[in-house]
Amino acid sequence: MTLTVLRQRFSHPEWLFEIKYDGFRGLALAHFRHRECELVSRTGHVYKRFAALNEEIAASLRVRSAVLDREIVGVDKQGKPQFCSLMFRHGPARFYASDVLELNGRDLRLLPAIKRKQVLRRLSSPGNPSLWYVDHFRGDGEELFRLACREDLEGIVGKWAQGPYNTQGLSSWIKLKNPQYSQLAGREELF
Known about the structure:
Layout: E1 4-6, E2 15-20, E3 29-33, E4 36-40, E5 46-47, H1 51-60, E6 65-74, H2 83-87, E7 93-103, E8 106-107, H3 113-123, E9 131-133, E10 137-138, H4 141-150, E11 155-160, E12 173-177, H5 187-190
Parallel strand pairs: 1-12, 7-9
Antiparallel strand pairs: 2-10, 2-11, 3-4, 3-6, 4-5, 6-7, 7-8, 11-12
């Protein structure tokens, strides 16, 4: 799903809001089959440099197959996202899962986002250092955005609670970026 950037924060009871962790969203799909995990980009490229993370995710899932969506995040000792650490592999990487698209051969993309989040929560095991469930707040996007800015996080993601996972049409996901986010400084030179 693409993220549409909005400039105006909002709250609405029919929307789910999540913290936007600064990581590699371009390789945001974790494909789990036959007790093996592959991290795959949206263009189908399999990333091999996260072999340890693949193994840790595979060891933690107790299902036949699953496809999870979100991003790989590098974190510091306090668990705060650090993009440069991820880029140069200077610390642990984690997969932050916010959606499940397939489970045990069943396509879940047409289910409402809130139902997919419920399924994903049941898959996640608390305390797993490699696979993190991205929790959500229903309705209060403005307060979560204030918190994200105060904590110097990248921003928030909003999802229509009843929205399907639609990759062909209009996206029901939005992104509100923290305009003062400190880790954006000098990012262009990295690429």
